[in-house]
Design goal:
Structural class: alpha/beta
Number of strands: 14
CATH architecture: Alpha-Beta Barrel
Protein name: Aldo/keto reductase
CATH class: Alpha Beta
CATH superfamily: NADP-dependent oxidoreductase domain
Number of domains: 1
Strand order of the largest sheet: 3-4-5-8-9-10-11-14
Number of helices: 13
GO molecular function: oxidoreductase activity
Order of helices and strands: HEEEHEHEEEHEHHEHEHEHEEHHEHH
Pfam family, one: Aldo_ket_red
Largest sheet: 8 strands, parallel
């Protein structure tokens, strides 16, 4: 079994410890394409058999579908044997016209409309709904989801006020009562990491795009601020939403859209160094983010068993020290980036 599945790291100063590798379940909500139930079960079976014991989901993933699927699987496993996180800030409700409802951006998912609500009552309702969809009576931590201007535009200030005025109190109460062991915030971009994330006393941040093998702009700002405050990080998109698995050819998804030419060019540069050192690109992507001292876990997604198996194998793939030094010398990663010890 991979050491990344066995080694536990403590989240901030909380009682929660997480393995270095977990399972992100956005794909179970049918992010890029529909996933049938047999493939869902096979994928989760592969993860469990490989030793994966940390799972992350959200109401937004497939408009409730990911939580339903993940909960249906995990409720038959001993609760003490796995860690589970989900997210708050959205509640789901029946659309006025289900027959003509647009589920986008999900390829599949469920017919539920979304209401953003970061107030005390909104957080509590989101939490209660999540438990019902999961068919479980506990989660280990909650994540404030998608509180950034890319989602909310001119409503951003109002939603931030909701959270700061009362929503945080809900999370603090749930933590104090023992309902959850920790709470954090999902971060999609550098701006959110440097603004709203600094205004809440968080245990961790679930960082999607701002820290990957392709982007270390946050290293000396947002990530450094978290480190100074003792806030842990879970990396939610180690493959930058796809391109660090597929490479510069193929679909080349980056930041949940088509990769721009400059990103594809950067990936081609990294691919050349990978070829020179016989290193697989996905292995480099996973191991790179885990080298940062405040990163406690990485949670790549998967939609089929082979993807889980490949991700687990990437954790322990040997990567020589010269690979990392070449990336730095060619300015393909920040020269001050923490990197794994070569092996």
């Amino acid at each position: 079994m991979s050491s990344g599945l066995q080694t536990l790291k403590r989240v901030g100063s909380t009682s929660l410890s997480l393995p270095a590798f977990g399972f992100g379940s956005a794909h179970l909500g049918e992010l890029y394409g529909k996933v049938d139930e047999a493939d869902v079960k096979a994928t989760l079976d592969a993860a469990w058999t490989a030793g994966v014991r940390y799972y992350d989901t959200a109401p937004w993933y497939g408009r409730g579908l990911s939580e339903h699927r993940l909960g249906a699987y995990l409720r038959n496993r001993p609760r003490g044997e796995f860690k589970l996180t989900t997210k708050v800030g959205r509640t789901l409700f029946r659309p006025q016209d289900p027959a003509h409802f647009d589920r986008s951006p999900w390829a599949g998912g469920l017919n539920f409309e979304v209401d953003f609500n970061y107030t005390y009552d909104g957080i509590m309702r989101s939490y209660a709904q999540a438990l019902q969809r999961l068919a479980l009576d506990t989660v280990d931590a909650l994540v404030i989801h998608d509180l950034d201007a890319s989602f909310h535009g001119d409503k951003q200030a109002g939603y931030e006020k909701q959270l700061l005025d009362s929503g945080v109190k809900a999370l603090e109460e749930l933590k104090k009562s023992g309902d959850i062991q920790a709470f954090g915030m999902g971060i999609n971009n550098d701006a959110a990491l440097e603004t709203i994330a600094t205004r809440v006393d968080l245990d961790f941040c679930l960082v999607a795009m701002p820290y990957t093998l392709l982007d270390q702009h946050s290293l000396h700002r947002g990530m450094a601020s978290l480190q100074k405050r003792g806030v842990s990080v879970i990396i939610g998109a180690p493959f930058a939403s796809g391109i660090l698995v597929t490479g510069s050819s193929g679909p080349a998804h980056y930041a949940y859209g088509k990769a721009p030419p400059e990103i594809q060019a950067r990936v081609r540069g990294i691919e050349a160094v990978c070829k020179a050192h016989n290193v697989a690109l996905p292995a480099a992507a996973l191991q790179f983010v885990l080298a940062h001292p405040i990163v406690v876990s990485v949670i790549p997604g998967a939609a089929k068993p082979s993807e889980v198996t490949a991700n687990v194998a990437s954790l322990d793939a040997p990567i020589p020290a010269g690979f990392w030094s070449d990336l730095k010398a060619q300015k393909l990663i920040d020269p001050e980036s923490p990197v794994p010890a070569g092996r």
